Structures
1.
Amino acid sequence: MLVDILNAAQQAFSFFHLSYLFLGVVLGLMVGIIPGLGGSAGLALTLPFVAGIDPSAAIGMMIGLQAVTATSDTFPSVLVGVPGTASSQATVVDGFAMSKKGRAAEALSAAFTASLIGGLFGAIVLTVTIGFAEPVILAFGLAEQMMLVLLAVALIGSLTGSNVFKGLAAAAMGMLIGTIGSSPTTAIPRFSLDTIYLIEPIKVVLIGLGLFAVPEILSVLRKQERISEGALAGKGWVQGLKAAFANFWLIIRCSSIGSILGALPGLGGSVIDWVAYAHAKQSVKNPETLGTGDVRGVIAPEAANNAKEGGALMPTLLFGIPGSASMALLLGGFILVGIEPGIDMIRNEADTVYLLVWSVALANIFGAAMCFGLAPMIARLTAVRFALLAPILLIIICFAAFQATKDIGDLVIVAVFGVLGAFMKRYGWSRPALLIGFVLASKLEASVYQTITVYGSSVFTKPIVLVLAAIIAFILIKTLTKSSTKSKNSEKPVSTLLWLRSSGQLVFLASFALFAIWTLYSGQQFDQLTGFFPVIASSAVLILLIAMVASHFFIPGNSFWNDDETGSGLMSFSTSNIVFLLFVACVALLGLLASVIITVPIFLVLVARTKLSVAGLISGALLLFLVLLRLTIDVEFPEGMVWALVS
Amino acid sequence: MFNRKSFLRSSVAAVLLGLAAAPAMALDFAGKKITIMVPFKEGGGSDGYARTLQPFLSKHLPGNPRIIVKNVPGGGSIKGANKFQMTEGDGLTAMVASTSTFTSSIFGGDKARYDMTSWEPVVLSPQGSILFTTSKAGIGGMSPAGAVEKLRAASHKFGIKSPTGSELRAVAAFNLLGIENIEPVFGLGAGARRQAMIRGELDLGVEPFSAFKRKVAPYTESGELTAFATLGFFDDFDNVIRDPGLPNMKTVYEIYRELNGRAPEGQLWEAYRRLVYMGVMTSKSLFLPQGTSPEIVKVWSDAVKKTLSDPKFIEASGGDFSVYPQLFGNSAKRSVLNALTMSDTQREWFFSWIEKTMKVPL
């Protein structure tokens, strides 16, 4: 093995391989920074050029590209609150909060360090295990996979906030939303409102953009002049490094989570960062500061999302089974240049395998170094007046959303979840819980059904299943005891008078209940196999909502009452939501480029009160950027329904 | 990205060719942008098919047009196919179709507003299918007919994406051979099914030739999996012949004849035949929209033919295209018709057969 590793190193450090790797890293950094574009977009674009080049060059370029997107996607997550890719959603929570406190530099340097260590950890795990990973992966059958999904479900409990039923209701709501679209078993469309768009399940990136990016942007717009209210972002690089090394074991634990879950096909990057975040919340001292700008909340997901690449390569290389779209493209590229991943390659072409591992490691080092280099310049964004940034960010959100399936429906979904997210943030509903519930829904539904069909009750004779069941029980007990000790010193329930004053929360609660009643009712029309999961999920939502309201009255300290909206800034809560909806509507109707020409200047003049010339300059620059993007890499923009109708 | 030398060279070549064959070469895509639609997301088999062809079609179509691959995913290829149905046949838009584009047109209900028999096939790329089981079944070293008789007596679990998934072709084959005690396990794609078989959780499998060669063959060599039949291949006269990729393995048709002493016929055979046309003969395909002129179709077909004999393409595609005869013109059209034509009674029987074997209502 050592000989193979050294042989591969010789290839890996050759100028030829390094130059292609470098090219891949640069491309990966770019697609990672632009929200909506990720590893899969980058790989899809490079595939036509891969055909026919030398295999080691192709490995360098493709792995370089794929491995660093998880490093550079931190920039927008931390600096402007828009996740760069789906796998850095959890970074937004504490990273953006740090930026708002003027600690962007610290957040970024901690994130890059964690990313680097996580990425290298993933590469080491891959090196050590690839030789004997086959029996390990084979030991995880349908039943064991179901238990891993349940483990992730159990971890949601720690993300729920003050009223545990409220958090669980949000998670159940996420699961219910996850049942929209064709059933993972019978392929019969559910709750698709007779549209073609909703035949396939909603893309998780849209829910992430809606729930996390939109509410943050609107909230900063309302309340703050600049993202960074404190000192400029320039300082804190050293603190970030120190913070990362002070939390070295957290990085290692989260990296392990990342590589293990990464190896599990179908779970995907969008949930790994949250599981790491949840783990941090469970295991660190003083977890209550997480969510308010705690550097550990940045370190945990960033370590995990880089480490996942090493894990995700395992099933791809061993069985030729890609766990995600980007792994599928990577596989496609390998086959194009004549590398055929599979058990044969592991057994007979170890040097190719280790060249891959070296590429992962080197790409992470290059990527982190370049991010450190770029950061001081990019971090200045937080000092810009936010009213100038907001319209650009809203345009980028529309652009990013449209990349999901290139359908106007993408914009509708991001609009719905943007407003939902804004209300959830205001009324204190856990957005991570809803998102994880959503991501796990189809996997949970399919694996429960498959396990029952294949094993029946004999599932409880499997040792790994029993061990995982014990871990799940331990987590649940820990969560419940934690929440009961915490609730003792929480605030008292709010007086009934306040209930009457603000009906918004009740309307919001009622709309959740009504949605669940509708799905429960229309879920009856399906056959048993198609209908069982939506029916269970809608019942769970309703029961948990009732428990939430009951606990509010009968268990002291379990108030579900929450209203974050204090004081008025630039505009009111409703106005900011309407501005957002107008932006999206304009993009849907007139198209992206026309919106840049029309909506952006209007916003800048009316809201940001800039001169017309400044507004023209900003929208011109944005237009130029988008046009260049289109000319160089052929991305698509929403074209506008009006023009289609006219012609 | 832009290679001036090769551009000049090819322009000169184009001019010379144009002079030599001026009357026949009225069509020229020089300076045009051609879109190959893929009704699936990036990274799937159809996407790979399009992206493998992309640079070579650009090289071999007259005028070396710029070709882009545009993914239009949605509704299991229904969205893209509906859009393609409305597209003008000017030769500037083509679409890749896969087996599920065919199955969706049958099972997609009123949402599938497209008729593939109205489209103009440029090329159909067939790919054989192989049936296999695990070592647990204990058929290693047995004759195919003996193996089937042994499998008939046992109960089985078969992983399948959905009740109307393309793996139905294998269920029809199993039923035809009298293997009927099969519990379907839904929600498992090819990769998950293969892994579950290696773990011994499921025991029946089907795989297209190229995936079989890459991902199953290592296990058949080490004895964990055993292949026992191919679904066969149809010649131009609708006769079953041996799979060109695995000519030494018997077909389902042959094993049926051996066991029953006569050729298969009746509704189940008709369903099987249709499913093989969908799943083997039209495994991947490239279409031009309805109403495209025969000249344009010919220019495209010629470009594909030139691509197929381009040594660089043979290298880039890993030889997948040279194993099976690629279908053009009338034989392509005939295969599409054979895959999709169904009388009302046949349709009724087909749907009720699926409901019975899959144990779910459609």
2.
Amino acid sequence: MANNYLHLARPLAPATVSSQSLSTAPVAVTIQPQALFSILDHASRRPADQDRVIGTLLGVRSEDGTEVEIRNCYAVPHTETTEQVEVDMDYQKQMLALHLRSAPKEVLVGWYATSRELNTFSALIQNFYGQQGEGTWPFPAVHLTASTTAGQDVQVDTYISAPIGVTAERAADSCVFIPVPHEIKYGDAEKSGLELIAGARDREDRSQLIPSDVETLERAVESVLEMLERVSNYVSNVLDEEAEPSSALGQYLMNTLSLAPKVQPEEIEKDFNNHIQDVLLVSYLANTIRTQIDLSNRLATATLTMGGGEGTSNTTGGEQKPRRDGQQQQRSGGQRS
Amino acid sequence: MADSAANASPIREVQIEALVVMRIIKHSTSAFPTPATGCLVGMDIPSSAGTQLQVTNCFPFPASVPEQSQQDQYYQADAAALAAAAPRAKSNVGYQNEMIKLMREVNVDAQSVGWYTSTSMGNFVNLNFVENQAFLQKQADERTSVALVFDVSRSASGSLSLKAYRLSESFMTSYKEAKFSTESLQKSGLRYQDILIEIPIQIHNSHLLTSFLHSLPTPPPEKATLDFPSSLADLSHDPYTTSNPLAPNLDALDLSIDPFLEKTTDLLLDSIEAHQIEQNNAQYYQRSLAREQAKITAWQTKRKQENQLRQQQKQPLLDETEWTKLFKLPQEPSRLESLLVGRQVEQYSRQVDAFAATVSGKMFGVRGGLVPGGNAD
């Protein structure tokens, strides 16, 4: 994200001095991780004889068109030879319609390719996606490239385009790609998923089981302990004049330390006891209810074999009920405390 | 009695691509609190130890079926019901087939292997869930389908909650015959614990993704050590310290107890209520059954006496089995619902147990941190 970009206003299409309000403002692109994952998945499933594959990007655009969020994407089959490129338009249209049915808010915003190369065909496809009618007009189409060469880092770039060319024929298959900044953004709920996925990245088999709650907690506590260790190591090194001191870091640590609340030990003790009792009570009740319902289900199905006839189940059922009512009251009492 | 072999699942484990995890999370959270459902595609790989099911892609089902005849305000009311019933809705079968056909063209493993649904606080064991899964499991060519359950509210508080379930064979046989009377339950020995089988899940990344994750979001710094920040403001704007998407996730240390307890107790109360209704139904059935039986016995003794009289008077005897035509025994209510309530409560109580285990640990930790010497006792 340290890259700097120079933004220039650009004409959007050749000879369109129309009354329509044209968006020439720069574009900021945010990418959600699942779209990127999908692109990478598509790249690994490409036909053996094809260097790159392409697909359509779906997402939402802010009202003025200056911010684009890429949320989803799908693959589009295409064939590319040295002379010509062929994109399956029908496929693109059908898939777009299907996606719109399940997520009506996500519209066409652009396209992706799985190589960093920008060539004449790129310009052709870019103009197709940016055209009037079915394209992203009057907004610019976003082009995303992801390098997927084996043995190299995956690099992602985003572009928008400006038309170039002296005649209409030349303009149709050429354009200037202008790099635009992008960032990868994810929500709170995705954090837990990403963390898990990232957990598998250092493993040889690239896979991981889903940990239980306690294991997650253990890992979090361990990482906090490790961080504390590192900080206190650094601090003691500074004190021993072995490491270089930094006033900004010191200030930051002081600020953090002052966040610790100052409360009376008695109050903590009181709150602690209240809450732990709540937790244990609810846990106890949940298990009691489970046992009760288990018991009642068993009694309902087991009576005939005991030879007692249907009547037994009737009376047991009747006896259980007041007890359960009692529990409900008990629980709501526990909640209030 | 159900033997263990009949209950064993044909699938040993489910392997999920990272892409699927992210797509499910995105779809579920954007649709929350309406349940979101979708289709899973992938392939099953049989081996000697058991089939491994690989889920390599997924797509959402349209949340609501557009029907012109319906008014708009009715839609809102049923959005949840529509979404929950989506996997077995007729219109979605077409949608699914079309989608899979198109996906096959771009080399995606185009075989439907199940469906996913989102839930909140583990509140998913209901008739809809069972019907959806049974619908898929019934089809002979899709015997390997699984249901992935993603818990939105629990995943927001730290660890990812994604579970894979199948209906057990013994439950499926009962379900196919639609028999959930007391007698058939005794015969099959089906308990609520046997309805669902949980299958272990493994998350899997592709090589490309692993490579990408290592360079996310910025390549590792070239210098071995970072420069010291010159000021406090510098520290908060440093790209290396602030914008790392894979920075340690410490949400698991969050100490919010009350909302969880409140919700769980609410849901438990709902379950108890449902159980109560079922029990009342069963009791009503038994009372009316007893009444009918009393009537029948009365009729039979009367007929017997009449026959004795007729025998003495040398008259032809009357039919003693005629009561089957005269009286009709009430239909026994299905026990399926109470089985499901039992399973649901079990789900809640396990959840609370897991919660209590982590939260009490955290609370002791907090007390230990805030009260010096509080660890002594």
